[in-house]
Inverse folding.
């Protein structure tokens, strides 16, 4: 079975391939990326890729009512939730730090053949990329538009500082960066040119 679009990163998908998708939130309140990952993981499992989601219980201003750390069916996608640190300070809450996620991933990341990180500038995503680098596990990143000029203007100083000090190294070490449009890729490459970029629209 061919995996098109990643320039030979994975030429064939073995039936036993285990892929862990990491995203800070799958809440409908977060819009398109949350919807897309559910459909993506469900579709992968339909072609015998063993795909799962690891995320937080974020639900915007509130929290999802879910079991923690157990693999459950969430709208048709195998998903594992971890409790978000719900600070009264919005910036800390939006960072979506989940201590249980870090502990679980450190103990289980070696069980997966590939890590697919969705979103950047978030505690879960940053830690997952860093840990995959440290353990030598290939990972793909889908920035979900967060490297576009408009997104970077929202909280510009802290995002650009975070990018320069932390996230740039994670992006450069990724096996591939998935953009969903040429425009998104071009804007990202102007900031981080040393990345393996691929434009693959959502199905």
């Amino acid at each position: 079975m061919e995996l098109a679009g990643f320039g030979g990163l994975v030429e064939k998908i073995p039936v036993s391939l285990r892929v862990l998708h990491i995203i800070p939130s799958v809440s409908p309140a977060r819009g398109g990326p949350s919807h897309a990952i559910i459909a993506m993981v469900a579709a992968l499992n339909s072609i015998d890729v063993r795909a799962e989601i690891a995320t937080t219980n974020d639900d915007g201003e509130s929290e999802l009512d879910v079991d923690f750390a157990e693999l459950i069916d969430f709208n048709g996608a195998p998903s594992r939730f971890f409790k978000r640190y719900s600070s009264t300070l919005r910036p800390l809450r939006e960072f979506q730090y989940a201590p249980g996620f870090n502990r679980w991933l450190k103990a289980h990341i070696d069980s997966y053949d590939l890590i697919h990180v969705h979103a950047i500038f978030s505690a879960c995503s940053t830690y997952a990329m860093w840990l995959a680098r440290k353990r030598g596990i290939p990972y793909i990143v889908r920035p979900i538009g967060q490297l576009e000029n408009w997104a970077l203007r929202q909280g510009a100083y802290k995002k650009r500082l975070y990018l320069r000090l932390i996230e740039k190294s994670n992006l450069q070490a990724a096996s591939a960066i998935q953009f969903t449009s040429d425009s998104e890729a071009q804007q990202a490459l102007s900031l981080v040119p040393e990345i393996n970029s691929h434009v693959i629209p959502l199905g």
